[in-house]
TrEMBL record:
Keyword terms of this UniProt record: Hydrolase
Organism per entry: Nocardioides humilatus
Keyword Hydrolase tagged: yes
Occurrences of domain Thioesterase (ranges): 63-140
Cited InterPro entries: ACOT13, HotDog_dom_sf, PAAI_dom, Thioestr_dom
Domain of life of the source: Bacteria
UniProt family annotation: Belongs to the thioesterase PaaI family.
Protein name: Hotdog fold thioesterase
Gene Ontology MF term list: fatty acyl-CoA hydrolase activity
Length: 152
């Protein structure tokens, strides 16, 4: 898939517009999403939901899916929830990520879904909380993030 990105046009878009364009396929997804097979399920102001299906490429030595996969999808949905609040030209970076793992993931268990929601959006930082749930609706992990807002 090759989509040309007009960086000048991208700089005029809000974070929500950018995320909606990615969800619609008008902009390419981040390469980490392609690598893991992560897709956007829902985007709204202050909220982002992603999905992926754990597979054998993601195993740790114990035969369960590596905890870094849960961390990655949660970090992604939490950060993108913050991204939806950005004005044109603003950026963000994760300053802190806190996770609580409740149960393992296994290859072939079906898609897992992570939803992040902004709790606070200030001028210089934002916080968000999120949950990762399995196909059975049980919480696999949950966490919070603090993101620094970067001015243009």
């Amino acid at each position: 898939m090759s989509i040309d990105i007009d960086l000048a046009e991208l700089a005029t878009m809000t974070g929500l517009e950018t995320m909606e364009a990615i969800a619609a396929g008008a902009l390419p997804p981040p390469t980490i999403a392609v690598l893991l097979g992560m897709s956007v399920v829902d985007i709204a102001e202050g909220r982002a939901t992603f999905e992926l299906s754990p597979d054998e490429r993601m195993l740790n030595p114990l035969g369960t899916v590596h905890g870094g996969i849960a961390a990655t999808i949660l970090d992604s949905c939490l950060g993108c929830a913050v991204h939806t609040t950005l004005a044109p030209g603003e950026g963000y970076t994760t300053a802190q990520l806190n996770l609580h793992y409740l149960r393992p993931m296994f290859p072939g268990m079906g898609p897992v879904r992570a939803t992040g929601t902004v709790i606070h959006r200030g001028r210089k930082q934002a916080t968000a909380e999120g949950k990762l749930v399995g196909p059975d609706g049980k919480v696999i992990a949950h966490g919070t993030t603090t993101c620094l807002i970067l001015e243009a």
